[in-house]
Amino acid sequence: MAAQTLPASGAAVTFNTQRTRAYLLKLPLFTRATVLIIVLTWVLTLVGKSWNWDVKTWGALIPDEIGIATLYRINTFPFIHLNVFHTILNIIAFTPLLERFEQEHGTLTAVALFFGPFATIPGLIYVFTERFILHANTPVMGASMWVFLLLGMEAIRTYKTNPYFTISTYNIPTWITPLFLVVATAALLPSSSFLGHLAGLLVGYGFGLGYLKFLAPPEWALRFIEGKLNLLGRLPHYVSVDQKTFGRFGVLPQSASSAEAGIPFAGVSGGQRLGP
């Protein structure tokens, strides 16, 4: 009996490895680059110690240290993580969400949004709330703010096609599901940033509802840049405006097959604070 189960187990492991490898090979360009930057940043946190350079202190989002000369922190903090566990957990949670977003909206749109409003708006919300409302100065880092931002967008999209799910006799709005995840993450990972996750989620709701979609780059500009630079021909795994699967940003697909219901929840991790 044991001899018969071992090959089956080995086949299952081989099959899963092959699927994982195939998935990784199909990742679009910006998703690959983002994961690579996160990994390289973690390596820098280790190497930087020998150079007397604390990468976490340099790039974390620290409310009291945000000024004209340190606005770079708004774009650096999502790539910096507290430890290897934090790094791996956020990569697992963030990669499938980012991959789906890039496939649906294109590489240039992803670059413009994640280095623009997807970083600055939730980051500034966090800084404003910490400094002027809570009068605190809690540093944060990690890509989990982006995780909850994308979950918020997914929740709104799901709500438009499937408004409720039923528990016992109660109808629960599907858009509220990420809020439960924010609370659960704060309870299970006390060192995570509840405010940071909430800021990302609120921005995701705003984009999902269409209130902030004007911040997405216009399609004519994307086509102009792609044509002038021949990005599709030069860059492997690049997703062009004409290749994207979701249509214009913020617009629901017309076919039922394109509008997949459900929100991917696996691997959601906490946006770790700087310190214990």
From TrEMBL:
<feature type="transmembrane region" description="Helical">
    <location>
        <begin position="194"/>
        <end position="214"/>
    </location>
</feature>
<dbReference type="InterPro" id="IPR022764">
    <property type="entry name" value="Peptidase_S54_rhomboid_dom"/>
</dbReference>
<keyword id="KW-0645">Protease</keyword>
<dbReference type="GO" id="GO:0006508">
    <property type="term" value="P:proteolysis"/>
</dbReference>
<feature type="transmembrane region" description="Helical">
    <location>
        <begin position="134"/>
        <end position="152"/>
    </location>
</feature>
<feature type="transmembrane region" description="Helical">
    <location>
        <begin position="79"/>
        <end position="98"/>
    </location>
</feature>
<keyword id="KW-0472">Membrane</keyword>
<keyword id="KW-0812">Transmembrane</keyword>
<comment type="similarity">
    <text>Belongs to the peptidase S54 family.</text>
</comment>
<dbReference type="GO" id="GO:0004252">
    <property type="term" value="F:serine-type endopeptidase activity"/>
</dbReference>
<feature type="domain" description="Peptidase S54 rhomboid">
    <location>
        <begin position="70"/>
        <end position="212"/>
    </location>
</feature>
<dbReference type="Pfam" id="PF01694">
    <property type="entry name" value="Rhomboid"/>
</dbReference>
<feature type="transmembrane region" description="Helical">
    <location>
        <begin position="29"/>
        <end position="48"/>
    </location>
</feature>
<dbReference type="GO" id="GO:0016020">
    <property type="term" value="C:membrane"/>
</dbReference>
<feature type="transmembrane region" description="Helical">
    <location>
        <begin position="164"/>
        <end position="188"/>
    </location>
</feature>
<keyword id="KW-1133">Transmembrane helix</keyword>
<keyword id="KW-0378">Hydrolase</keyword>
<protein>
    <recommendedName>
        <fullName>rhomboid protease</fullName>
        <ecNumber>3.4.21.105</ecNumber>
    </recommendedName>
</protein>
<feature type="transmembrane region" description="Helical">
    <location>
        <begin position="110"/>
        <end position="128"/>
    </location>
</feature>
<dbReference type="InterPro" id="IPR035952">
    <property type="entry name" value="Rhomboid-like_sf"/>
</dbReference>
